[in-house]
């Protein structure tokens, strides 16, 4: 029996219902058959996010080798089939029906596939010599073959006439990126320390002095981040060779701020919690938008802080009422008393007058009072802060999930104390209404 990813199957079922409100022409269909000796257990339909492939749907293969997808394209553009080894690029819009055949690892489109996919298929055939190399072939034989394909491709692209002018632009860019990726992949994999035939290539001299792409368009390709890694790894091993060629030097070669930020996100240091915090602090300013900032601060694979006194504390980073991001690292040299609260939390609001008293009493001392709201409604939070003239540092998290996972915040208010160097003092500190807190703070500040 053919098994299809649940969201694609449900869309298919919903489409068949007369009251569904979704027309069949809003869907695209991909049908295929796997043949040959190379086994395949699953085929995935992929999209691209930030230069890496992302699974959109998957299906197992039926006993006769067939598979199918039916889905609503989020937008007209490139989608990819992945068989576990190779990606097959397709240009898909609503209403398309594409039929494919995979024989011994090679994808072929059959039937009426449209002018865009015919052009993509032609480019795939032209590119094939750049993806194969016999064991007996000399390393340097690749480079005249590459130059020959480039020349042929340039002539081909000049002759193309296609109704969709946007697709023509995308095709030209895609071919340019594919050629760069093929070339860099080859030298990164096959270059030996004692060989340097690639240096005779005009294309090599064109790309190697400085990373050749000046904007973030490469992030639309499934190999975007992988290309960056391969390029700089090759350059470190076979161009710089002696001395350090650091991530900072790699970033200096990348002209696009967005691409620079995405590479920082792809290379996050997770060796230890302290190294992650240092990495976060160093590169946070390179993030270009709120989505990137959140991905850095809330990286799912980051190590967790040890919740013990004296251990490195989480570096809370959130925007204030003006939208400026503030972090606990900004207050190094001061104690940080953190209040996790929300405008809908009655016990939280009951603590505010006591917190305001502490703010007045310790004004000018080496302590910062930081309130972090988990209100989902940002506007409501800002209005509350303004109307009640709340002092201290007012930050907005907007959601429970944006708080450090290791704190296991299950209820609020929650109070936290961090020392001058950024280490935990208490992850469940006393409430401002408790007189013992004032005494504790005074004793800490005397040290």
UniProtKB/TrEMBL annotation:
UniProt superkingdom: Bacteria
Residues annotated as domain Thioredoxin: 307-446
Main location: other
Protein name as annotated: AhpC/TSA family protein
Signal peptide feature range: none
GO aspect biological process, one term: cytochrome complex assembly
Keywords, ordered alphabetically: Cytochrome c-type biogenesis, Disulfide bond, Redox-active center
Location in or out of the cell: Cell envelope
Coiled coil: none
CC terms in the record's Gene Ontology section: cell envelope
Pfam families named among the record's database cross-references: AhpC-TSA
Gene3D superfamilies attached to this UniProt entry: Glutaredoxin
InterPro entries, per the entry: AhpC/TSA (IPR000866), Thioredoxin-like_sf (IPR036249), Thioredoxin_CS (IPR017937), Thioredoxin_domain (IPR013766), Thioredoxin_ResA/DsbE_sf (IPR050553)
């Amino acid at each position: 029996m053919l098994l299809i990813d649940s969201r694609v199957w449900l869309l298919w079922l919903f489409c068949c219902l007369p009251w569904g409100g979704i027309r069949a022409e809003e869907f695209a269909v991909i049908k295929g058959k796997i043949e040959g000796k190379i086994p395949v257990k699953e085929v995935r339909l992929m999209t691209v996010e930030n230069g890496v492939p992302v699974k959109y749907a998957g299906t197992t293969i039926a006993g006769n080798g067939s598979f199918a997808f039916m889905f609503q394209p989020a937008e007209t553009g490139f989608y990819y089939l992945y068989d576990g080894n190779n990606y097959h690029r397709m240009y898909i819009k609503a209403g398309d029906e594409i039929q494919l055949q995979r024989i011994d690892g090679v994808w072929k489109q059959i039937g009426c596939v449209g002018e865009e996919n015919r052009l993509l298929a032609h480019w795939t055939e032209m590119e094939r010599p750049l993806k194969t190399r016999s064991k007996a072939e000399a390393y340097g034989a690749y480079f005249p073959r590459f130059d020959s394909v480039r020349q042929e491709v340039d002539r081909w692209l000049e002759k193309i006439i296609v109704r969709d002018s946007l697709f023509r632009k995308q095709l030209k860019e895609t071919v340019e990126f594919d050629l760069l990726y093929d070339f860099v992949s080859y030298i990164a994999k096959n270059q030996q320390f004692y060989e340097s035939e690639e240096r005779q290539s005009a294309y090599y001299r064109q790309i190697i002095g400085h990373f050749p792409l000046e904007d973030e368009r490469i992030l639309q390709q499934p190999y975007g981040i992988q290309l960056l890694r391969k390029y700089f790894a090759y350059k470190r091993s076979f161009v710089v060779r002696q001395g350090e060629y650091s991530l900072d030097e790699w970033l200096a070669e990348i002209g696009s701020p967005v691409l620079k930020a995405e590479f920082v996100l792809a290379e996050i240091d997770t060796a230890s919690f302290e190294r992650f915090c240092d990495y976060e602090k160093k590169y946070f300013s390179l993030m270009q938008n709120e989505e990137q900032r959140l991905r850095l601060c809330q990286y799912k694979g980051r190590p967790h802080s040890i919740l013990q006194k004296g251990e490195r504390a989480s570096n809370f980073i959130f925007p204030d009422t003006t939208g400026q991001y503030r972090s606990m690292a900004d207050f190094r040299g001061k104690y940080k008393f953190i209040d996790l609260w929300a405008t809908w939390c009655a016990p939280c609001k009951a603590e505010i007058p006591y917190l305001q008293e502490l703010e007045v009493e310790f004004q000018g001392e080496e302590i910062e009072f930081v309130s972090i709201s988990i209100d989902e409604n940002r506007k409501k939070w800002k209005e509350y802060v303004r109307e009640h003239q709340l002092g201290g540092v007012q930050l907005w998290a907007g959601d429970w999930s944006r708080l450090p996972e290791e704190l296991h915040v299950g209820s609020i208010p929650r109070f936290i104390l961090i020392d001058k160097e950024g280490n935990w003092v208490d992850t469940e500190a006393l409430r401002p209404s408790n007189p013992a807190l004032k005494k504790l703070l005074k004793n800490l500040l005397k040290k």
